[in-house]
Amino acid sequence: MKTILKIFRFYFNTLAIFSPRTSGKHAFHLFGFPFKAKLKDAHQKFLNTAVKFELKVNGKNIQGYRWGDGSESILFVHGWQSNTYRWKSFIESFDQEKYTLYSFDAPGHGNSGGRICTVPLYEKTIEAMIEKVGAIDHFIGHSIGSFACSSFFFHKNYTPKTYVSLASPNGATEFIAEFQKRLKLSKKAYKNLLTYFEQYIGSPATDYLQEIFCKEIAPKATLIIHDKNDKSTSYENSVRMEELLRLNNQNVELILTEGFKHNLRSGEVVDRVVNFVSESNVNSFSLER
Predict the structure, then answer these.
(1) CA 13 to CA 11: how far, in whole Å?
(2) 150 and 249 in one domain?
(3) Which range of residues forms the domain containing residue 22?
């Protein structure tokens, strides 16, 4: 892996000097490529228990899933280099007579088509899902999936009954800065990547920040969970989310865990999320490990 990173570093940093746009374009295509892993048999077996359907997003086939047939709807939105299987414990824990559970494999992930994935593409997929199945009552997102939910609420003025944010990053600039850090890109190569990224999404990267979204979005109740030992996205992002939502007079609770790391894989977290959505109410709760 270190050798591969060194090759990419040399390529992007050298190309940045002679062909800035090409350097930015090629770096973006690596940055936005999720390196989709082949699904294991056990993962596919679980996904096959769902009613499957397809969504069309930018001409690509996006795999959608449905469990249950209840009157209340929930949409699960996974994070980077993940897929719907990551929600298995949650899906098996919700009462499927009360809830209809939806999920999708994001563009370039799981069983979906595409090679590039961005937050605007996540948003388009959420929008396509709603056009297909109707309004969604509850949203549960992890990592960039959570960030995409906030972005969708903000840009579409959408108000869900409940919103569960798990380990959300702060924004696009954080993603790009982490990419620069990992590859040790030069300042010029970083600038070229940022310029191409903004041209591709049609907006400044600074427009995609929880700092902006949380001043405007208005879920009826929000639960935020983040682990203090998360090395992928700082728990301080979620602390700030909670502060901003409270300033916006929102009904919000923040839970900081210890020991569950970025994936927050814990039966306690699953139980808390299920109870929160089921009650559609935010209560005082403490969860530590």
Answers:
(1) 6
(2) yes
(3) 1-31+172-206
Q: Which 3 state secondary structure label does DSSP give 172? A: helix
Summarised one tens digit per residue, pLDDT across range 22-65 is 999 999 999 999 887 788 999 999 999 999 999 999 999 999 99
Domains contained in the chain, number: 2
- On whether the CB atoms of residues 185 and 193 are closer than 8 A, the answer is yes
Least Cα distance to 78 among 113, 107, 38, 44 occurs for 107
What CATH number does the domain containing 217 carry? 3.40.50.1820
Query: Per-residue pLDDT tens for 76-132?
Result: 999 999 999 999 999 999 999 999 999 999 999 999 999 999 999 999 999 999 999
38: DSSP letter: P
Q: Report which of 98, 82, 145, 135 is spatially closest to residue 274, judged by C-alpha positions.
A: 98
In a domain, 36, yes or no: no
